[in-house]
Amino acid sequence: MTATCVILDIGGVLEITPETGWVQRWEERLELPLGTVTERMHDVWRAGSVGSISEREVHEQVALRLGLDSSQGEAFMADLWTEYLGTPNEDLIDYVRGLQGRCRLGILSNSFVGARERETTLYHFDELVEQIVYSHEIGIEKPDLRAFEAVCSSLNVRREDCLFIDDVAVNVEAAQTAGMQAHLFEDNARTITRIEAHLAAGPLVPGRVPIA
Is 175 helix (H, G, I), strand (E, B) or coil? Predict the structure, then answer.
């Protein structure tokens, strides 16, 4: 299908997600050396990001590896999700909502098992765009080129007609390698300007060079 398309990342783009220091606070509370949580949980976080572990198993491993009781485990995971979900980037979300009907819309997110349910409840991203592709559901994370192929396939659009927005430079570069147009998110104003330019240009005509 020939159609102009905009695909966005979630964390750092549609969600504002500054570091909250929750990991360091837990290490202090548990009297663990700095970096212990990351060291002990690294493979679990990785498994959760590609969906090779269930949310229940994540909770079990958190309790086992950090020596937490049930209430501590729940509090630990609540802190994780507080930072993960951040707060909505309301201005950008409102702008994207206004794009409905002007172009195809999608989301491609490196995620964690349980993210779809929470983000749907809090932010209703399922009502904002047509397709959401989460890494924990497809088993592939950006910057793997297959992630970009997956989201374009889910929307049935040509990669060259898609503008991908992400706050991580390596993901932007990977999207370009995959044949998409891409923009590094730094602020709402520049991102909106770039999207408007993309929409004004329309679907890419063979032989025409896309906007940088």
Answer: helix
